[in-house]
Amino acid sequence: MNRKALLRALLLAGIVAPSLAQATDGYLAHAYGLKASSMGGAGVAVALEPFGGAVNPGAMTFLGNQWQAGVAWFSPERTASRSGSGPAGLDGSATSGSKNFFIPEIGANYLLRPDVAIGITVYGNGGMNTDYPGGQIPAQSACAQFNPKPGPYNLLCGNGGLGVDLTQLLVSPYVAWQFTRGHSVGVAPVLAYQSFEATGLQAFDNPGLSSNPGSVTNHDKDSGTGLGVRIGYMGRINEMFSIGAAWQSRIGMSAFGDYSGLFAEQGSFDIPENYTLGFAVQPSPQWLVAVDYMHVKYGSVKSIANPSSLIGYCFMGMRDNCLGAGDGAGFGWQDVDVWKIGVQYTLNDRWTFRAGYNHSDDPVRSADVTFNILAPGIVQDHYTLGASYRIDKDSEIFGTVWYADRNTVSGTSLLVGFGAPATTTETISMKEVSVGIGYSRRF
Predict the structure, then answer these.
(1) pLDDT (tens digit, 9 = 90+) per residue, 238-284?
(2) How far apart are the C-alpha atoms of 250 and 227, rounded to whole Å?
(3) How far is residue 32 CA from its own chain's centroid?
(4) 2-433 falls under which CATH superfamily?
């Protein structure tokens, strides 16, 4: 019966997987699992739910047999504007239209024996998805100097709607081994699939700015696959104190051929390496406090990290800095440090309450605002709440709500030097809210 329940959970994972997408800490989710979401994402040193493949596979020998499924409504608000262009006529503003996403989650954990666990986690990343309407910039503007197609234009001087859509699906089976009492290690292969689409970038789709014009914008969704690994450790030092650590390798993804003239290294878009360290304190059976520190190495992936200003060198004849080239212009994202703090209070044998806070560095510098109109993954402060209700000894329902405060970044436009005066400034902003509900069952 246990194996049948596990197989049902794995089948459900395959059904919901294609629609997973989420973002808050850059374009990584602030948490994986709705309970961790309620605690600001803190979870590397606790075993609250079967999401070891996404958080810490080493923790899963402490969980027991359990499957979990849930869904969250996720609503980001992204806006962009330009001012100060004067007679160049480039001023305008737009709000991304997509604001409602429904994000399922699934995970399952099974103890082969008291010291060995296996399971699977299906999760997603995304958030570099925008769809701004076109027509903000009039035909009689500086856009006409480098886009031969007639206007009106969108905010990046292209035609029609402007936006990108990046989705990453990760399926991670895992095995964990408690090699000595209270200390466990785990390993989780990470099988990754991603898709990407860009629209409205016609102004950059030319030999003066791209190494491969014709492969920059307005193609159907392209896709790629890759393989990485997550390794984790959790140790229960005593009844009150535990520690945890997890590392995920950089995942080398197959290139987006249809967008080889946009992303550096001929369409490469790898998933960055990241690692997490944390601890948890349980001073009494009722109280649990968890703290995680996470570092995401966005700066190691050229298509994400290379400064957007490199496109100016391309325009001056340095072809290796053109869009799509080996050292081509990118989004200018830098590494981020993330702090996650969560508190859990067990009121009685039915009710448990959670709260948390998550703070991330802003990956976007002011010098790179122009390109990040496409991908304003800039929220920094997340406030989270949640609760669980135990239906019976095996079943539980739970919910979470979180809010990411609006963050704004402004900087001199990349269009300065392409017909815009030095006073031309762009501003991007983003805020998010989410509500989720889930169900778990022991088996």
Answers:
(1) 999 999 999 999 999 999 999 999 999 999 999 999 999 999 999 99
(2) 9
(3) 11
(4) Outer membrane protein transport protein (OMPP1/FadL/TodX) (2.40.160.60)
